[in-house]
Each structure stands twice: as structure tokens, then as C-alpha cells.
Amino acid sequence: MANERRKLLEVSGLTMDFGGLRAIDSVGLDIHAGEIVALIGPNGAGKTTFFNCVTGIYTPTAGDIVIAPPDGSSRRINGLKPNAITSLGMARTFQNIRLFPAMTVLENVMIGRHCRTRSSILDVIVGGARTRREERETVATSYRLLEKVGLADLAGEYARNLSYGAQRRLEIARALATEPFLLLLDEPAAGMNPQETLELEALIARIRTDNELAILLIEHDMKLVMNISDRITVMEYGKKIAEGTPREIKENPKVIEAYLGEEAHA
Amino acid sequence: MTHFKKSLGIGLWFMFLTFPLMVVRVNTIDNVIEWRWSNVVWVGACAAAIAWLWQFSIERRAARHAAALADPHPQAKRHTLAQRLSDDPALTRRALIVAGLLAVVFPWVTSTTQNFYHINVMVSALIFVVLGLGLNITVGLAGLLDLGYIAFFAVGAYTYALLGQHLALGFWICLPLGGLVSMLFGLVLGFPILRLRGDYLAIVTLGFGSITKIILENWDTAFGGAAGIAGIARPEFFGMTLEGRMQSVYTYYIVLALVAATIFIVTRLKNSRIGRAWMALREDEIACEAMGVDMARTKLSAYALGAFWAGLVGVVFAAHNTFINPDSFTFMDSAMVLAMVVLGGMGSILGVIIAALTLKLLPEYLRAFAEYRMLVFGAVMVLMMIFRPQGLINDMRRKYELDTADDADGGDDNGK
Amino acid sequence: MDYQYLLELFCGGVVKGSLYALIALGYTMVYGIIQLINFAHGEIYMIGAFVAFIVAGILTFSGYSGLSVLLLAAIVSVLYVAAYGFTLEKIAYRPLRHAPRLSPLISAIGASIFLTNYVQLVQTPDFLPFPELIPEFEFMADISSLLSSADLVILVVTALTMIALTVLIKFTRIGKAMRATQQDMIMARLVGINVDRVISWTFIIGSILAAIAGVLIGSRSGQINAAIGFMAGIKAFTAAVLGGIGNIPGAVLGGLLLGIAETFGAGYISSAYEDVFAFALLVIVLTLRPAGLLGKATKQKV
Ligand SMILES: Nc1ncnc2c1ncn2[C@@H]1O[C@H](COP(=O)(O)OP(=O)(O)OP(=O)(O)O)[C@@H](O)[C@H]1O
Ligand SMILES: [Mg+2]
């Protein structure tokens, strides 16, 4: 079903070197509108690095990253700054949670609205009607997002005081506030208990339908990955070793080898 | 008991450590050695006492951390004054009115036509309040450690002095000009360096501050060299020049108005799209950028805005003193403004005001303290970082309220 | 082109630069391990000069003179300054090991201000004449316009100190532990290295190098003051950054380059702006090549 849809992200030949270490070796990946794609692989496979390249935190050594936002345009985004890429419509969460700890939960989400609002320093000082309206809209939108991830009650709490699972959900809300067409989640279930993971699964599904966006997901929880993804890409040692539907991946001998190998070493 | 023994040990250690510097003094004029044995006793006793307090405080700090980890939502929060103020707009308004009234009547009740010393002291203190609030934007809100802030103050002061001298421009024209020139400096300098990591940025700004002073000192033809510039005009009052007490009162009201305007504007900025971006940048640059905030622009705006305030108040400083020279713009002055922000609490407006007034007024009225002023500042900076990094007054975050019903004074007033 | 003058400037630059290098090593070693700009390091150096001055004063007034006084003063100074460095770390930095990055830096600035004013209050804010302890060697008479006896002593001592430091870091237990901690503190802890002790030793060794520089500069310039630490500190930091902070050969290279650049700037352009050259160099290096000449650029892990 996925292939008839529009391509939103097209990565080809992506390579990233750190000094002598090739963390990603010529990896390609496509994402279509409305899809949930999972990126899996053993620790150190290069998944997070892939995210960092796509979102502009690192500039890739080689390869092309082309995005095609729903408005019909299309452009290569290699070397663009992270904030420019976010403005174009891709938002992410972090594996090692990176919230703004000394700001409130609500303010964390409001930061996500920054690139969708316009008030300048002068506007703020003058405090005109338009600025005030924009501020009210920011608050209202952020509240709605907090309700969606189930954190509205904690809106006034400092982000550093949230539990682990709640912090992960706050990161999702913050990313959604930037109005992305593609959401990148880096191990959203890490550190969650099974109950929380189930709720997260429902949340991700809900986000996809409500916000009409595609999701690229890095996750180690295989149950979650298998339940929710339309397609799965597997990486090992920086290379893509398999790609396909959850069913195909489950039966792929290379993937089994990669994971068993990891288990055996661990 | 172990505490006691440890304290004694530390006392002895410091007696040893400070021995050559505190006890021996080589008098190179009479070629004799002065032995100041009594100091040993003092050092030992004080060090032991402080060590005892220190251990106690460190343990309390550890206990606090543990408690915070165990229960992040304590039921009965202690309500500090700052928090009550930020939670209760009516109380805030009343407190503001009282403070405002006190500030307005201050020059009349503390001075006579002959003696208006207190007004002049207060003017100097208020100048530093504005400086503190300006640096609070850069350091407290945006987290950019600027160790050369006083250079922008110098730019403002020299702008007024030079424009007055060569073009005979008046105070009121130069006031915004001083701010703008200083901001321009901030933009030009900030552009290449704001990409640097926090600690490197600190050192580079320190370098800029020192370069500015060296240039002012050595370029006699342009800036009057080490002697500085004298005979700067005081602020004119509708074309008139005031005399004596009236002049001081007038300058006082000018700075007071500047303080009020600064508080108003910084409060607005703080609780806005711009201020939130600054704070997010302070908390986590990478996450901030990934959330769509233009880091370069946001940093530059905080840096330049801080510079603007320093320039503005630099003009007032030059007009108030009628004389400036490079000695008013040393690293120690930058450090003092920084100490105000650190002591007051990064980002907290009320805290910075209280800290600035304390740090300026205390040495003025406690002459005995003046000598130890910088020693105390240094110690305060270390101790604050260890025991109370949030400053005297914790920066309370505003509670945003979700009200879709429109009202006249909307978003900006219903919090702090 | 006046080669004699050029050569004089060059020699002056090398001497100055080797002193910067000695101080820069302390910055670089500390930064390499705990990523802190030890802002008070310049004051440690200043205290080294003061302690040496005091010991030398006691000895000269008791009738001793010459190199033996210098040696004794240097030894006492090194011991005291090591104690100061150790204490400084314990008080101002250790409680902030896990604090946000700017907190220890602000604490360091506070410590720097505190120490300067401490010496100003208990000693004097004025300049003090440092006794001439290095005799004029006769064999240096011919080239004394290029290199004075004091300069020669400085170069020799610096070279010896650096050799000793290299041996210490390469071959001793503590040196190996330091290198391990620099690479990965968590891993070092896991394999049983006492990281706290390593950090203390780093401060002690860095302070000793600074003390040596303090004694040498006192005997060369003939005067000291409680404020000399500030400038020297910043310049040495510049040298460390120039070479690539955290990199020990880099600090030496950076120190020498800075010393030479400064004397040439002062000699050919203007001596009033001598300090400006150092700062300008710092700004240029940091903006164009923040990793320094010998440092490797690394990307922060996200
Ligand atoms: N900034 C960096 N500098 C040097 N090496 C890096 C950097 N970032 C990542 N690496 C290396 O690249 C490789 C891939 O790391 P990455 O974080 O992408 O793995 P991952 O697949 O996300 O693993 P995990 O499942 O543990 O999160 C690792 O060997 C890592 O050490
Ligand atoms: Mg990862």
C-alpha cells in the first residue's frame, strides 16, 4: 500500500565518517506519506547517527538527503542547519532525553512553536494585539498537545521533575509543536515499563492518524516495532542489511544472525 | 566528633598554607622582615570554624539532593516571598506601588540643599542595577557568559563624551545613540564569536573587554588616553542646566525611569517567544536548535540587547560623573556586574536588583567593608555556585493560563 | 632588514614563550581531564612568585645570596603552590563536578578574584623589587645582548621541566592514570583508577609548573605584583588554545608561538599594544580553528 503514496524523504548513499570510523556506510531509505517505518539494529549500528545526519546535527560525509514536503516542493537538505530542517517540517526526539530542565512542561512545548510564530523583539516590547493573539495561540496549541500526550495536569511543573516515561512523551509533544510532516523518534520506549509501552504504541498510532504525518522510529522493543511498523530497515555496523515488512524481517536470516550474534556477545 | 577533628585538621592546614603570605612581610624599603604572628591564630581559628560550617552545609546539600530525587513533588512547598509575589498578581502590584513610591520620594527625604551625597550614591547604584539587568539578559537568560560586558558600558560613555565634545550633541540625543553604537559593537563582535562553546566565549569576551581598555588607554588623540575625558555635560532639562541638588535629583529620576523601563521591557521579553528561546538556548543548545530555533540569531539578539543596555546606561554614567577614564572599565568591573547576576539568581529580575543594590551600597556605607569588597565578591561567586547556584532569589517560571476569553491586558499581565 | 634586531626579538620571544608554555601546561592538563578553564591558574603562578620572593627576602636579609637562595626559594615555592593548587581544587571545583558547565567556570573566576585580592590585602598592591639571584655568567658575556644569563637559566630550566613532565606522563603510574582519565573518565573509574586522586595530582603538577614559571619570571623581570597573574593567566590560556587545548606538546608550541608573535608585534608595531596582539591571536584562533594547531576537531555526541 505504501508505494502508491508520495515520497516524503529519500535518502540515498548516506555515509558518515568520524575520523577513521565509518559510522554509516552508504545507506538508503525512503519514507512515504502516512507510513511508520522502523529503523532497528544492534547497539552502535549507526541508527542515531542516521537521525543526526537527516536532521542536520551532523553534515554527512557523502550521500543525498532529499525531502518533499506535502506542499509539493522538493529539495536536498545536506548541510542545512537543524533549525532550518525543522522549519521545513521534520522534527525529532532524542535517545538521551534533551528537555529544557529548568523550564516548565508547557514552556518546553511552547519552544516547539518558535519556528511557527513571528513576533520580533520589538513586537514583544510594544505588546500589540497581534503579538498577544499569537501568544495566546501558542499557549492554547501547546496545551492541546500536552493533553494529547497526557501531560496537561503537569503543565506548570518543571520538566526536570517528570518521570522518565513522562519526559519521553513531553519530547514527543515538543516535536509535534513544530508541525512536522515527518516525525523521527529515537527509542521512545526506552526506560518505559510494559504498560507505558502499550500506551506509547497507542499514542504513536493516534498521532499518525490525527496529525497526518509519517513516522521514522528507532526502537529496540521488538514487540512494539513489529506491531506498529509498516516497514522495517535493519542496520548493522553502519550498513543496511535488510529491509521489508515486519513479517519479512522476522524471517530474514541475516537479521536473525545480527541479533543472535549480539546476544551471544552480550 | 569526626567533624570536629576534621575541622581542627583543616585549621592547621590553612595555618600552614597561609603562613608565608599572611605572616611574613618583606619590607623592601627598610630591608627588614615583618613577622605578624597574630595572623596565624586568626587564620587557624577562622579556618576551623569555616571548615565546620562547610562540612555541615555540604552534608545538608547532599541531603537536599537526595530528598529531591526521592520525591520530586514535595507536598508542602515552602512559600518564599518571591514565589508568593509571582503567584499573586494583586500582591505584586501592591508591592510594586510601594517600592515605586519609596523610590520617588527617596531624594527628597534623604537630602538637603547642601548635602545630597545619598542621592549621588543612589544614582551610581541604580546605574549598576541597569547594568546588572542588561547582563542578566545575556548571562542569566541566554546563558552566554560575557566577561567583557563593561566594554559596552565604556562604548556608551565614550560615545556621549566624544559626541558632546566634538559635535556638541546633547544628552537626550546621545542617550539612544550611545545604546545603538554599543549594540552595533555587540553585533559586529558577536557575529564571529557566538558560535563558540560557552567557556571559550567567556575568554574571548574577556579578551574584547581588555582590548577595549588598552585601546582607550593608549589612543590619546582619539580617547584622551589614561587621563580620560573631562568636562562632560550633565543632562539638560528642557534646554536648561540645573545646579547642585536639583541636578542630582534630576539625574536620579532619569536613572530611575531607566530602571523602570528596563524592568518592564525585560519582564515582557522574558515571558515571550524571544525570552523562552533564550532560556531554551541556555538549557540545551542542541535540543533548542533541533526544535527550530535559529541559534545564531537568538544568541546575537541576546548579546546585542545586553550591549544596548550597557551603552545606554554608559551615557548616563558619563553625564553623571562629568569625567571618564579607562579605569572605570576594568575586568574587575565586569566581574562585579557578573557577581550581581550570579548572586541575584540567573534570570531573576528581582534578585539582580537586590544584589546590585547590596553590592554597590554596602561598600559605600560600610567603609571597613570597602577594602575587602573584591575579596568578598570572589568568595561569594565560589560559594554561590556551590551552595545556591539558583541565586538568592530563585527565578520563578511564570504560570501561563489558558484563557481563550479575550481581555484588555491579555497575555502579559496575568503572571509575574 | 636589521638581522641583529630580528634575532634579539626572536630570542626574547622564545624566552617569554617558554614561560607562557610552563603556565599553559597547567591549563591544558586540567582542561584535558575535567574540561574546566582553571581561571585561577594565573593566580597560582603569582602566588608562586610571591612565596619565592618572601623566602628569598628572609634568606638575603640573613646574609645569604646567589643561586643557592634561588634554589631554596624555588623549592619552598613549589611546595607551597602545590598545596595551594590542591586546596583550590578541593574547595572551588570538586563540589561542582556534576554541576552545569558554566558553574565551575564562574567559581574559577571567583577564586581568581579572591586570590588576587587576598595577596593584595595581606601583602601589598604595589610592585615589589625581586632580588637579583641569577649571577651574570662570564661565558655569556659575548652574547649578552641576545640572551642574558637569566634568559639562559629560564631556557634550561624550562627544557628540563618539560623533559621531566614528559617522562612523568609517559612512564609513571600516575601519568598513565592521567592519560587514561583524559580519554574516558567513566571507563577509567571502572578499571579501578581513583579519578579524584588523578584530578588532585593534575592540579598539583600544573601548579608546580606555574610556580617554577613564577620564580623565573620574578628573577628575570626584577619585580612582582599581586596582579601579574591575571594577564599571564590569559596569555597562557591563549597559548594552550593556540596549540590545541588538552594537548601537551600543543601547549609548548602555542606558548613559543605566542611569545614570538608578541615580541615581534611589540618590536615592529607598537609596544603599547603588546597585549592586544595576544588577544587578537586568541580571537582569531578560536574563530577560525577552535581545535587549535595540534588539536583534533571532534563532534559532540548527541
Ligand atoms: N560524535 C561522534 N564522534 C565519534 N564517534 C561517534 C559519534 N557519534 C557516534 N559515533 C560512533 O558511531 C557509531 C554509531 O553510533 P550510534 O549512536 O549511531 O549507534 P546507535 O545505532 O544509535 O546505537 P544505540 O542503539 O546504542 O543507540 C558508534 O560506534 C559510535 O561510537
Ligand atoms: Mg542510538
Automatic annotation (TrEMBL), chain A:
GO terms for cellular component: plasma membrane. Transmembrane segments: none annotated. It comes from Propionivibrio dicarboxylicus. Residues 9-262 form the ABC transporter domain. The keyword Transport applies. SMART domains: AAA. Keywords: ATP-binding, Cell membrane, Membrane, Nucleotide-binding, Transport. GO terms for molecular function: ATP binding; ATP hydrolysis activity; L-isoleucine transmembrane transporter activity; L-phenylalanine transmembrane transporter activity; L-valine transmembrane transporter activity. PANTHER family: AMINO ACID ABC TRANSPORTER ATP-BINDING PROTEIN, CONSERVED COMPONENT OF ABC TRANSPORTER FOR NATURAL AMINO ACIDS-RELATED. The lineage of its organism: Bacteria, Pseudomonadati, Pseudomonadota, Betaproteobacteria, Rhodocyclales. InterPro entries: AAA+_ATPase, ABC_AA/LPS_Transport, ABC_transporter-like_ATP-bd, BCA_ABC_TP_C, P-loop_NTPase. CDD domains: ABC_Mj1267_LivG_branched. GO terms for biological process: D-alanine transmembrane transport; L-alanine transport; L-isoleucine import across plasma membrane; L-valine import across plasma membrane. Coiled coil: none annotated. This is Amino acid/amide ABC transporter ATP-binding protein 1, HAAT family (TC 3.A.1.4.-).
UniProtKB/TrEMBL annotation, chain B:
GO terms for molecular function: branched-chain amino acid transmembrane transporter activity. This is Branched-chain amino acid transport system permease protein. GO terms for cellular component: plasma membrane. The chain crosses the membrane at residues 35-54, 91-110, 116-137, 144-163, 169-191, 250-269, 300-323, 335-362, 374-393. Keywords: Cell membrane, Membrane, Transmembrane, Transmembrane helix. The keyword Translocase does not apply. It is found in: Cell membrane. It is a multi-pass membrane protein. It comes from Propionivibrio dicarboxylicus.
Automatic annotation (TrEMBL), chain C:
Keywords: Amino-acid transport, Cell inner membrane, Cell membrane, Membrane, Transmembrane, Transmembrane helix, Transport. CDD domains: TM_PBP1_LivH_like. It is found in: Cell membrane. InterPro entries: ABC_transp_permease, BCAA_transport_permease. GO terms for cellular component: plasma membrane. GO terms for biological process: D-alanine transmembrane transport; L-alanine transport; L-isoleucine import across plasma membrane. It is a multi-pass membrane protein. The chain crosses the membrane at residues 44-64, 70-93, 105-123, 143-169, 198-218, 224-245, 252-270, 276-295. GO terms for molecular function: L-isoleucine transmembrane transporter activity; L-leucine transmembrane transporter activity; L-phenylalanine transmembrane transporter activity; L-valine transmembrane transporter activity. It comes from the Bacteria. Belongs to the binding-protein-dependent transport system permease family. LivHM subfamily. This is Amino acid/amide ABC transporter membrane protein 1, HAAT family. It comes from Propionivibrio dicarboxylicus.
